[in-house]
Specification:
The protein is built from two helices and five strands; from the N terminus they run βααββββ. It is an alpha+beta fold.
């Protein structure tokens, strides 16, 4: 089993999305956050479930899609490191990843 770790920048992304959604509904903002965490918890058992991020083409940098959002993560030995949570129409941020 892999351990899922969140980069501070990914948590910042999630907090920003939560704040945006909460302008319309606190309930759905909190549900979104819960659902994203649930999606990443599945990576503990199935770390390769996501597809390789097309823009990068690096086997160890993958993404899962939840609604309109991309949850980008990196596989590092027995860890899954969540790098970013971005809207599907946004460009990839510059983030650090191991090669």
């Amino acid at each position: 089993m892999s351990k899922v770790l969140w980069m501070p920048s990914a948590l910042d992304d999630l907090q920003g999305i939560q704040a945006f959604i909460s302008r319309d509904s606190v309930f759905y903002a909190n549900k979104f956050v819960d659902d994203v965490f649930a999606a990443t918890e599945r990576l503990e058992r199935f770390p390769n479930i996501g597809r390789v991020v097309p823009e990068l083409g690096i086997e160890t940098v993958r993404e899962i899609v939840y609604g309109s959002y991309r949850i980008i993560y990196e596989l590092i030995s027995n860890k899954v490191q969540v790098l970013a949570v971005i809207h599907g129409k946004m460009l990839l941020p510059n983030f650090e990843y191991e090669n």
